[in-house]
């Protein structure tokens, strides 16, 4: 099972910030994490969402739904950030 971390508003929307989730691909993981919340599902799939797998930030082009996950992977989702 992958360890999933939700940062900021994503954790608020889901009602949790850390959980073990069984999924073989990033797309399946997003579905499990979003559950029945279409708003959270849309935000997790957004190109501007930060997706970090095992401490590596994945650009949008490298995180298709069929991106394979290993059982001990750590996947974090975070809202986009901006500087000032």
Describe this structure in words.
This protein has a five-stranded mixed sheet. The protein is globular. It is 27% helix and 24% strand. The N and C termini lie far apart (38 Å). With 84 residues, the protein is of the alpha+beta class. It has helices at residues 9-14, 26-34, 38-45, and strands spanning 2-6, 18-21, 50-53, 56-57, 74-78. It has one domain (2-78): Ubiquitin-like (UB roll).
Outline the fold blueprint.
Layout: E1 2-6, H1 9-14, E2 18-21, H2 26-34, H3 38-45, E3 50-53, E4 56-57, E5 74-78
**Mean pLDDT, as a whole number?**
93
First-to-last CA distance: 38 Å
* Quaternary structure state of the chains depicted: single chain
What is the strand arrangement across the widest sheet? 2-1-5-3-4
Indicate the radius of gyration in whole angstroms. Answer: 12 Å
Structural class: alpha+beta
The CATH class assignment is: Alpha Beta
**Total beta-strand segments:** 5
> What letter string, H or E per element, gives the SSE order?
EHEHHEEE
Summed up, the domain count is: 1
Helix content: 25-40%
Shape: globular
Q: In percent terms, what proportion of residues is strand? A: 15-25%
Discrete helix count? 3
CATH architecture: Roll
Pfam families: ThiS
Organism: Brevundimonas albigilva
Protein name: MoaD/ThiS family protein
InterPro entries: Beta-grasp_dom_sf, Mopterin_synth/thiamin_S_b, ThiS/MoaD-like
